[in-house]
């Protein structure tokens, strides 16, 4: 149990590292939370800092999810409870660590418990767990962004596509996804959480007040 608690704590702290704030202060001389939407995530970083520093923030945020999984893998020595899922104990351990990192990114203890939206960190954690679903979600993200110019719309679409793709692969295309009946609930829960973190963006999209990246649009 102490091992699991330690991994959750470490993963949360890894996810809490406010790379958007660090990069903006280090390379631009200001706190990114004072510019644009006021969010420290990669979307606002692209808008405020430009694509190079924005990409750096995004890569670092993705790495937080990957790092949490790597830490969990290194620290794993068994689960302190009965594993009722069809997943291997190690996979369950990794999922717990990854979710802790996502929560850390969204509610970072280093910035007043107000962080990013969690998409990049969640992507880093999920790549190792469900690569096909992540690939489809990323593809939809790109399509929505180049058609609309809204990063937030692409992120919301990707969050919805992740569990939907898993459901279709298992039930419509007959792909046998190991542990599907457990994984689908995790996927839905994570999707709902990420949509919840974008609730202000949804409101601005509905009101036509969301910031648009016109340079990314194909059709204008």
Structure commentary:
- The chain is mainly α.
- The protein folds into two domains: 1-129, no CATH class; 131-220.
- 69% of the residues lie in helices and 0% in strands.
- It is built from ten helices and no strands.
- The chain has helices at 2-16, 19-28, 42-49, 51-75, 89-106, 119-127, 131-148, 151-171, 180-197, 199-207.
- The mean pLDDT is 91.
Keywords for this structure?
mainly alpha; single chain; 2 domains; 10 helices
Q: How many strand segments? A: 0
Low-confidence stretches are none
Helix content: 55-70%
The percentage of residues in β strands lies in: under 5%
Cα shape: globular
Instruction: Give me the strand/helix succession.
Output: HHHHHHHHHH
Computed over alpha carbons, the radius of gyration is: 18 Å
Q: What structural category arises from helix and sheet content?
A: mainly alpha
- Whole-number count of domains: 2
Described by strand count, sense and barrel closure, the largest sheet is:
none
Intertermini distance:
55 Å
- How many helices in DSSP terms? 10
Let me know the average pLDDT: 91
Describe the structure concisely.
With 220 residues, this protein is an all-alpha fold. 69% of the residues lie in helices and 0% in strands. The chain is globular.
Task: Summarize the helices and strands and which ones pair or pack.
Elements: H1 2-16, H2 19-28, H3 42-49, H4 51-75, H5 89-106, H6 119-127, H7 131-148, H8 151-171, H9 180-197, H10 199-207
Helix pairs in contact: 1-4, 1-5, 2-4, 3-4, 4-5, 4-6, 5-6, 7-8, 8-9
